[in-house]
Fold each of these.
Amino acid sequence: MKMILGFIAMIAAALPVYAQGVWEQKVKEELPLMGRRNWIVIVDSAYPLQSAVGVETIDTGQDQLVVLDFVLDAIKNSRHVRPLVHTDAELQYVPEKEAPGIDQYRQQLKNRLTGLPVDSALHQNLINQLNELSKTFHVLVLKTTMTVPYTSVFIQLDCKYWSAESEEKLRKKMKDEPHRGP
């Protein structure tokens, strides 16, 4: 009997490692396929399971900041994409008294996002945007163990080697100059 209980405990202890490997492997496999207009979203425990075809949700079973660090590092080390980060506008208004740990989380998040393009929008607007985008583009949602509200981090992927400014200049040049042959 002790042997059986020991075996069950060993299997149970291995499950979180397996779950961690699954989400990390998914990011590693999908990131090279993803590009401009794809999104990776790192969310709290209560984030809804979206039913749109283009949205894939994985339960990481991990701390949100651990998942965020992994994803940001993977993007940083990619050759083709860079992050445009969107956070919930509500995050700045959630009081510590009603959500213990929110002040520390805000500081830790700020430290991780320093130097990246970051903006905030209403949570529901970001979800609505994902619903619309997922009709055409893939969205990977990584659900975490976070139990503090409005802590979702929405990472919109953009082209690393071609900036918005370069695109704007190209479009202007195309408009201003006569058609060129191949």
Note: The first strand starts at residue 39 and ends at 43.
Amino acid sequence: MNNIIGVVFGFLLLLLLPVVAWVLIHNSLVSKEEAVLTAWSQVESNYQRRNDLVPRLAESVSRFIKHEAETLSAVTGQRSESYAALREAVSKLQAAQADSSDAMNALGGKPPTEDRQLDEVAGSQEKVLLGMKSLLAVAEGYPELRSSDQFLTLQAQLEGTENRINVARLRFNEAAQDFNAAIRKMPNSLVASANGMQRKAYFTADEGASRAKKLNLD
């Protein structure tokens, strides 16, 4: 009788071990994928913060242009075209921001699984950054604009946002690489495949991956 119980127990143990192993692997991969989702939400949040600041920057500059142009017109009776460069820089920045918002919305809040998708997001965000740098460079020629309290505050907020974006990207890369490496290993790959877990794209190494890009705000 004891022999029969031992055989049954051994048989049940053999059946349970693969199930337990599967559950443990599944839970581990879920935790790693959740880490990727959390890291991506931080990337999204900081990109959104930048996109929220862009209209405020554009509005600040546009208000300055309108006030200065109206003042000049009232004094001289002529409309100055000396603000054309500022207007063009504002327009390009607003267009870049619109494109970046479209690229993020296309992902539906999920981390990209294709390098192409992440390249589109990164590329559109790079255009926003270049647009901000261009606008700030043009603003160098207008001391009254650069010295205004609102403009100085926005500059500081934008610089802080770039630092946060850089940190969020690095953390996302770490989480994505950890998850990607895990689902390639056996027997993890079997569990991942059975549960539809896909590789996550991550930011490729470039200037922004190693340090925050300066906005030349000084």
Note: The two ends are 86 Å apart (CA to CA).
